[in-house]
């Protein structure tokens, strides 16, 4: 909610900065300049995990650009969407700065709730919406990109991320495990910036793992509104099923479960809600199991051991799905250089 407030403040300042370039011309009495115009009505599609913030990022900027919007929220968070949209409409109804020539100023912020088939497909196919901003899985993004691109529309896509944290041998080994814990377990692994792969130097991997195991074992798991809770539940049963499948695939592909695992899911099965235990899976040295390239929206951390982080090895660990939205590097000696990042294909 604080992010909604912050982005609204940011948008107010940005509204005075929508300027373009003024350029010289070789022609007399001739002026060239850029002038930005509103797109019109845009579509916003959001996911369940940040049901208010992602809408605010899109809607506040769209509004100051002169656009109206239609928002399709996740069916797993409809009440948040209704509440946020009503607040925005209340503000528009009480202000006297913007008065449209036709219609109600409150309708700048539109909301429609429905399934992907019923609403989502019609939204992305509608030529009256020149831009669709969508947040969700890579699978969803491919579909949105295909349909909107097919009608030569514009898209803004914020999709999944199979994010990695890299710990080198000279890292602060008191700080790094805490960063791993926060990145991998926070929000129960249900955000696109969750840490899913730990790439650790062979000189320190055992120490890092031995620090993580008791920390994982002591994580308070419970209702997300309780102050003592560090990890809440998954959003639905299908998320537990996906985690179960990923763990079994990792085992079939030669990995070792260090904590949590299928047994951790079963230990939580009696609780009301979709609770699991966070899981650490160690990958055999030199192996690149296919499951580690997939984003599983659950608290699973794959631990890789490397000795020399060469470009070739990095290429082995990257694919269209395993690209990271973010990557953390822990090392103290910056003068020793950085790990080479593979080029985009």
Report on this model:
The protein is α/β, with parallel strands linked by helices. The protein has two domains: 2-158, Aldehyde Dehydrogenase, Chain A, domain 1 (3-Layer(aba) Sandwich), CATH 3.40.605.10; 163-336, 3-Layer(aba) Sandwich (Aldehyde Dehydrogenase, Chain A, domain 2), CATH 3.40.309.10. Helices cover 34% and strands 17% of the residues. The protein has ten helices and 13 strands. The chain has helices spanning 2-14, 53-64, 78-94, 116-125, 138-150, 175-185, 205-217, 237-252, 261-267, 311-316, and strands spanning 22-23, 32-33, 41-45, 68-72, 109-111, 131-135, 154-158, 163-167, 195-201, 256-259, 279-282, 300-306, 327-330. The strands form three sheets. It has a six-stranded mixed β-sheet, sandwiched between helices. The chain has a five-stranded parallel β-sheet with strand order 5-4-3-6-7, sandwiched between helices. Helix 2 (53-64) links the parallel strand 3 (41-45) and strand 4. The longest helix has 17 residues, at 78-94. It is globular and about 70 Å long.
